[in-house]
Amino acid sequence: MSKTKLKTYFECTACGARQPKWMGRCPDCGGWSTVEEVRLAPVAEAAERWVARGEYGSPVPMTEIEGGSELRFSSSIEELDRVLGGGIVEGSAVLVGGDPGIGKSTLLLQMLLELGKRGMKVLYVSGEESARQIRMRADRLGGAVAEVLVLSEIDVDAILAILEKDRPSAVVIDSVQTIVSAGISGAPGTVSQVREVSARLVGWAKGRGLPLFLVGHVTKDGSLAGPRVLEHMVDTVLYFEGDKGHPFRILRAVKNRFGSTNEVGVFEMGEGGLRGVLNPSSLFIAERPEGASGSAVVPCLEGTRVLLVEIQALVAPQTFGTAQRTVSGVERSRVQILSALLDRRLGLSLCGQDIFVSVAGGLEVSEPAGDLGLVAAILSSYTNRPLPQDAVFFGEVGLAGEVRGVSRAEDRVREALKLGFKKMILPARQSKELSKSPAAKGAELHPIGNLDELMDLLA
Known about the structure:
Layout: E1 7-12, E2 18-19, E3 35-40, H1 43-49, E4 72-73, H2 78-84, E5 88-89, E6 93-98, H3 104-117, E7 122-126, H4 131-140, E8 148-152, H5 156-166, E9 170-174, H6 191-208, E10 212-216, H7 229-233, E11 236-241, E12 248-256, E13 264-270, E14 273-276, H8 280-284, E15 295-302, E16 305-317, E17 325-328, H9 332-345, E18 353-359, H10 371-383, E19 391-393, E20 396-397, E21 403-404, H11 409-418, E22 423-427, H12 428-434, E23 444-448, H13 451-458
Parallel strand pairs: 6-10, 6-11, 7-8, 7-9, 9-10, 17-18, 19-22, 22-23
Antiparallel strand pairs: 1-2, 1-3, 4-5, 11-12, 12-13, 13-14, 15-16, 16-18, 20-21
Helix pairs in contact: 9-10
């Protein structure tokens, strides 16, 4: 082994930027007390740790590479399969992030228990909990399974040795910030440790064609802790969203090399763990109040399916010098634009009103199709007149006050009819198209061309 002298550099634990000397504040990300000293291993020593992986040792013509679709198998959790793009891909690396206590470990342990019941040998590696704690959680989730192996270890060399010996069908590392490499200085969770450990684990998984799931911590602002390169190393990045005090959880893909990033999975947390919600629309609007103003139902697209969500608005006289615009689940800038549009086009005095907007159930509505429902909720609260209980609203509102068409109008109408909604308040152009469609059979179509027509309809 080479006796090259070890080098030292200074690295920011928040953004990974390297500095020539120690600084109290990182000049790249602005973080205070985030720059730490890191010992760099010799190049020869680092090279010994990297073993060539893969089938090909030299470049080959693309036509000689075996093609075909990727090999998948089901996780036995339908909502998880949906977000992954149809199932678990062999040799893939998946990074799962989310707030503490949101359900990351519970979901992945449930997945391993289901795979173990199918006779697949799987491994759960925990650097945070003991084997006894994991067994207790498994008992709460329906009972332990002999095919699920449990390992409490933080040394990456020991983990790789066990993986090489046992060759499980799937591996979960909980969490990657707790694993350390002896060849890299620094405490667990530092940028250099996370980068080295992740690279070795992902390289092993891809070289063996086995799926790897990494649990990642998040920072105060909700982003994944560790270097940004961690997200580039893996094939899929999943975020678990939701309020810990609320039973619903949203699993969203922000990166997926084997599927769409538009899909979301909806789960409900109960005593027996996380349960997939196959029809989340009925749950999101189940507690909608009757006869209350400021409540509008909007069919929104989440991936390939339509979800009915309730947008609530409250308009009240301002209590401070400047009117407030407080929102949850929608973009604040969109509420400001639409309230200014109502003030300008319809003559409403909203500049002196506080407006509070929320999406029930913790879901986020980011597509323009929610504009018409948002406007209807604000108008309903401002006039204190409830909207029709069996009506849904969808359409994009332009700055001229016009209502524009949106994508997949037939699917939105079909989902609304399935849940008992009869009145469809939608763009005028799409109303003509849907009047001839079998999907709108039994629906009352109310075309809206501009905000004046919406105001007349609600009046």
